Protein 1
Amino acid sequence: MAEYIVHVIIENKPGISDPEGDTILNDLILKGSFSNVTKVRSAQMLKFTIKAKDKNTAKSQVQKICDDLRIYNPMVSKISLNIES
Amino acid sequence: MKVGVIVFPGSNCDRDMFHVLTDVFNLKAQYFWHEKGLPKDLDAIVLPGGFSYGDRLRAGVIAAHSPVIKDVKKMAEKGTPVLGVCNGFQVLVESGLLPGVLLKNNSLNFMCQWTNLIVENNTTPFTNKLKLHQKIPIPIANGEGRYYVDESTLKQLKKKNQIVFRYEETVNGSLDKIAGVCNEDGNVVGMMPHPERATEPEINPIDHKPSSLIFESLIQKIGVKN
């Protein structure tokens, strides 16, 4: 079995406020005269190194882990998974 | 009559809670480490505040998978009164015993200050001696205390009278100023503020009696003092 690295990005759903992203935008980026930035959303990333027979299996197993163990809270957060190439 | 105080790695209000239960209210209390099960003869369970597992990943989420939580769930289903304070509330929410989630405060600050609570449900085992809309001066101490639920759950909470405490004023951005909720049966209550820091006149400069009624409500519910 090969080893894959799966990136899990956990971020708040669109309707949920993100005071950290707002602060980075309003108090750092916009004050730094980068006025073309319109939005910043903060997120948390976990890197899973997992043994699996192929990429898709690795990804679906990590998805299951995230769902079963509430790695993210589905009421407020969503996750996106990417395989590190 | 015995109250179990659950201790996780990183709990730091367990001894304050134990002190208040035993020294102030003459209850029999016992600590229970998170790796072990609970005896069946407990009359109530308290999950104290702190930083279980250093708030890794999300406050309360890792503790919510502890072996002891399985027994807390079983006893909660049977109607045993369960109180979660601060991190204990976060653990109850993450374990699914209470609805909603506690997000980072809007200010992004760890907030440590006195607030006023308003009693919204005085039928729970922890509020039955309080008057409806009674004010409770009480301290908060948290970084992730902003209560949130989706719109349909909020409707359900209102319909089923599950909002137990509201802040008098907007404190941290909590939805509908919610500071504490209960489960549908009312026996599991979670609250962000710290009643164990407010029941003695020596440490409460405003009024220690309303917070004391939270513990006296429990005594009324579960029976005589030891």
Note: Chain B touches chain A at residues 57-58, 61, 64-65, 94, 100-101, 103-108, 148-150, 153, 173 (CB under 8 Å).
Protein 2
Amino acid sequence: MNQRPTSPHIGVYNFSYTMSLSILHRITGVAASVGFFMFAWWLMALASGPAAYATAMQALSSPIAKLLLGGFTFSFIYHFCNGIRHLVWDTGRGLERTQARRSGLFVIIAALLLTGLVLWLGCAALTRGAA
Amino acid sequence: MSLQTPLGRVLGSGAAGQGVAHWWTQRVTSVALIPLTLWFTLSLLGKSLQSYEAMRGWLGQPWVAVFTILLSLTLAWHSWLGVQVVVEDYVHGKAAKTSLLLVSTFLHFAAAVAAVFAVMILAVS
């Protein structure tokens, strides 16, 4: 390559936590996609009858599945909150550095609190009515 | 001097041969997903998830079925577009990129059809 000028890329910027939030949006988006495939599988199990549904719920109660479900829950909620932040940006608002840092912090705190809340309510929904 | 053709300038298309449809569809589906996912999650958290009868009875109701199908299709669409962007940005090499995009497309369509089919079975049987 010759010495033609290139546009500034990731490597030239000082690190700030808003960068991690940006890449986390993509990571959680891909994780939520896997969660969607699991959702379709769960619906198919329900449509297949009581035995298939019981087997599916049994599979979902293993420790690894619970860890995955917790991860999907956080991924989905973070992607939801940060997605709203992106939609606000699309209107041209909140793009100043201090604003973007403040909204990023808000999204992380909101996502963690909401994940805790949903997991707590989810555990209640899982044990409700169980014999 | 621009090397863009007058037609290309009018259509607003760059090298990709298309305009902002992908970007815009991603936004439209994300806006639709806000109420759909909120409704579904909040409803689900109030149910007895272990009870086959309870889940089937809920998802089989006509309006619940309609909105669950809408949720499934919008999720599949949004996820398909999003995974496409991630693959295009991070997977280099034409063979690997094209293969992964094909797999993603097939998986998303299969999951969307499965979800819709499952809800319809619950609703009509």
Note: The interface with chain B takes residues 26, 29-30, 32-33, 36-37, 39-41, 43-44, 46-47, 50, 53-54, 57, 76, 80, 83-84, 86-87, 90, 118, 121-122, 124-130 of chain A (CB under 8 Å).
